[in-house]
């Protein structure tokens, strides 16, 4: 029922890629108003056999506050979709609905695997030779070293599941490449990642320009810095777009050039849009947010992310590495008092 | 003697804008090897009458470590240039030499006006309707609320002196515009700036995209976030440049378009280059770093910054507002125990 368009777009999104779903053995459990969903499926009969419906009377409004959604959301389509994961009826949930409500309800029902305040956001940042997975881009503002290592673990698992790279390389965002630079938290996280075996291919510090340089597959940072970086990139792209329009205005040739330039800038901006959806990382289960304004294709691509994550080792790999991290940290905190007794 | 080219470029830079210097009543005290400088001035006789020379035997190498430069730099051209400010022989110093050495020696000789670990870096960030002054972009990594307020004070004074705007608007970089968002330090700085009278036109929180949107004249952030933002913008511009080249390669028309696009991207990148020089903010005196690789024009523009700052109310305005800040903070820390007794 979520997103700006509800069942018509969601059903059309599923119906547009039936061959892909069949090849991967995917089935859908659709949550919401049964009559509305049946009506949409009647228009796409080929999709009908891949779908079950779980009726829900309630819908969470797009402007509902997260706290309110948690209190009153039980039995809504969004709630039921997340609950279906916990109950083993589904392996992943995709929603185009209220982001804050999705996050709060997912956290309540599935609980966090990592020791995070809230699920982390990851974006697929366009780079010179492909895509860099960047996290956190806004959910967790204050991050200690442990949180940053958790992001590294989740980011590597996400990138592997989505892009099929066996050992994604991971970098830690800093203001220089030397070990003595940066915040305490960043330096501590660097030591943990360098000495521990939490991600297979840890490459050390990277800088802001490396978000798009492609030197690493995954860039880890706190939610404050990640959010500023993301919005700075958007602002820069918009600024360049304006500059180009000015530069090109002079002649007919220029105007044609501007059209070419603008289409490539539009593609770029679409790729770095943070609201374009993505998984909520760090939950015990797979929940993917689709962009509220997504069309059928956009919704299908959010479903594809969920399928790729569900059919990979993603969840168990994260759990295994987080347990490893917890064990290492427990050992360190036991070791410390002994050291100080010297 | 500093920069990649030394006296030839520096003297040519001064000689190229003699009318401007005369109009502003500027004279130069050139520090370095007297014979070399005289030889260069002999080729630009019109500049000779505006220049005095203070001979120095020693030169600080571009790869010398700051600590070493401080220990052994006395009597070098760089040292003498900074010392001339302290001794009242000059009102500002401009150097294209070793940045770390310039910073350390300036701090030692002039001392910090603000309570900063080291001078802050400001860049003139190109925006849709002009230029945004952004600081700190890398010198001070860990910043508490007081530090951020100091940046606001220095940034406003810098922007006014350079761009002639009477009351520059100031924004604080955050991840959202609501008061409850962001780090503690950012929220505390927000309260100080909102309630105190440290900058005339404080506008509250801005986001990463506002670095180039032009909604405020000055954006304040810590050196970690500022450095990441700056390098992210550079990386984005480089990425777009590459994308355009690809998009344009198809046709002759496209190749012409690419030339247009690339020249505007080049201008953009030149404008956001952090090493392009700028004042070291927070010192008791005006020291401007010129880019080591600057040509005569680039060096002249660094001199223009120094002249504009020296001929404005810049130094005394910063001192006045910093004293105001110190007084307010002292009052607050006196007030607190009483409140907690209350």
Word description of this protein:
- The structure is a homodimer of 342-residue chains.
- Chain A contains 13 helices and 10 strands.
- Chain A has 342 residues and is of the alpha/beta class.
- The first copy, chain A, has 2 domains: 1-111 and 283-311, Isopropylmalate Dehydrogenase, CATH 3.40.718; 117-274 and 313-342, 3-Layer(aba) Sandwich (Isopropylmalate Dehydrogenase), CATH 3.40.718.10.
- In chain A, a hairpin with a 4-residue loop joins strand 9 and strand 10.
- In chain A, helix 5 packs across helix 7, helix 6 runs parallel beside helix 7 (99-110) and helix 10 (223-248) runs antiparallel to helix 11 (252-271).
- The longest helix of chain A is centred in the last third of the chain and has 28 residues, at 314-341.
- The relative contact order of chain A is 0.15.
- At the A-B interface, helix 10 and helix 11 of A face helix 10 and helix 11 of B.
Total number of beta strands of chain A: 10
Q: Residue share in helices of chain A?
A: 40-55%
Which blocks of ≥5 consecutive residues of chain A have pLDDT under 50? none
Strand order of the largest sheet of chain A: 3-10-9-4-5-8-6-7
Largest interface: A-B, 54 and 54 residues
Radius of gyration of chain A: 22 Å
CATH architecture of the largest domain in chain A: 3-Layer(aba) Sandwich
Task: Give the structure's gist in a few sentences.
The structure is a homodimer of 342-residue chains. Chain A is an alpha/beta fold and 342 residues long. Chain A is built from 13 helices and 10 strands.
């Amino acid at each position: 029922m979520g997103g700006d368009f509800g069942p018509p777009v969601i059903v059309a999104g599923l119906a547009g890629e039936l061959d892909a779903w069949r090849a991967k053995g995917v089935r859908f459990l659709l949550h919401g108003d049964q009559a509305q969903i049946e009506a949409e499926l009647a228009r796409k009969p080929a999709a009908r056999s891949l779908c079950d419906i779980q009726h829900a009377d309630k819908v969470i409004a797009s402007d509902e506050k997260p706290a309110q959604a948690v209190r009153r959301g039980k039995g809504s389509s969004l709630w039921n979709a997340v609950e279906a994961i916990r109950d083993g009826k589904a392996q992943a949930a995709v929603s185009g609905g209220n982001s804050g409500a999705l996050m709060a309800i997912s956290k309540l029902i599935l609980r966090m695997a990592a020791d995070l305040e809230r699920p982390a956001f990851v974006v697929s940042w366009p780079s010179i030779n492909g895509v860099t997975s960047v996290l956190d881009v806004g959910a967790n503002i204050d991050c200690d070293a442990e949180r940053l290592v958790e992001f590294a673990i989740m980011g590597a698992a996400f990138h592997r599941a989505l892009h099929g790279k066996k050992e994604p390389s991971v970098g830690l965002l800093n203001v220089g490449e030397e070990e003595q630079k940066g915040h305490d938290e960043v330096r501590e996280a660097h030591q943990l990642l360098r000495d521990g075996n939490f991600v297979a291919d840890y490459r050390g510090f990277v800088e802001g320009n490396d978000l798009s340089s492609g030197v690493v597959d995954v860039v880890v940072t706190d939610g404050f810095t990640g959010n500023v970086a993301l919005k700075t990139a958007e602002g820069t792209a918009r600024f360049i777009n304006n500059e180009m329009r000015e530069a090109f205005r002079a002649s007919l040739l220029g105007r044609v050039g501007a059209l070419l330039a603008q289409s490539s800038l539009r593609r770029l901006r679409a790729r770095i849009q943070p609201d374009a959806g993505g998984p909520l990382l760090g939950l015990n289960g797979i929940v993917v947010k689709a962009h509220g304004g997504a069309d059928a294709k956009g919704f299908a691509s959010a479903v594809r992310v969920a399928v790729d994550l569900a059919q990979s080792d993603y969840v168990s790999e994260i759990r295994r590495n987080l347990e490893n991290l917890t064990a290492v940290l427990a050992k360190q905190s036991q070791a410390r008092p002994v050291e100080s007794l010297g």
